[in-house]
UniProtKB/TrEMBL annotation:
<dbReference type="Pfam" id="PF01381">
    <property type="entry name" value="HTH_3"/>
</dbReference>
<protein>
    <submittedName>
        <fullName>Helix-turn-helix domain-containing protein</fullName>
    </submittedName>
</protein>
<dbReference type="GO" id="GO:0003677">
    <property type="term" value="F:DNA binding"/>
</dbReference>
<feature type="domain" description="HTH cro/C1-type">
    <location>
        <begin position="14"/>
        <end position="67"/>
    </location>
</feature>
<keyword id="KW-0238">DNA-binding</keyword>
<dbReference type="InterPro" id="IPR010982">
    <property type="entry name" value="Lambda_DNA-bd_dom_sf"/>
</dbReference>
<dbReference type="InterPro" id="IPR001387">
    <property type="entry name" value="Cro/C1-type_HTH"/>
</dbReference>
């Protein structure tokens, strides 16, 4: 049984991170000044020129190491941990619970009542104008 690990396919990692960011190949190509076909070729190759890799990492908002060491498992672990922790401590990581101190429905009713009153005031004003003529 061989314990050799499969070589990392950096092009595939670029592709997955780009897709997770919701970015198309054309957008990445425009950002680094190459053609869409060049991005397709980069994503198909196992190795990438270090200068291009640095540019791509910057555009994707990740580090070069993240591109080189990306795994699907790490993404799921990150999101699971983020959401698990954010439900306990808030999205910013503080321990303060942020709960509404008012009923949102009450605010909607209040706004509606103010709008109705404004319309009544308009009608009253227009009636006074009409009587004055």
């Amino acid at each position: 049984m061989s314990t050799a690990t499969k070589p990392k396919h950096i092009g595939r990692n670029i592709s997955r991170i780009r897709e997770l960011r919701g970015m198309k190949q054309e957008a990445l190509a425009d950002a680094i000044g190459v053609s869409q076909q060049s991005i397709s070729n980069i994503e198909a190759s196992e190795t990438v020129d270090p200068e291009k890799l640095t540019e791509i990492a910057k555009i994707l908002g990740v580090t070069v190491e993240a591109l080189e060491n990306f795994t699907e498992e790490s993404v799921f672990n990150f999101f699971n941990n983020f959401y698990d922790n954010s439900s306990n401590t808030g999205a910013q990581g503080n321990t303060q619970n942020n709960h509404c101190t008012f009923n949102p429905l009450d605010k909607v009713v209040e706004l509606y009542e103010r709008l109705v009153q404004a319309e009544k005031d308009k009608v009253e004003f227009l009636e006074k104008l009409m009587k004055g003529k």
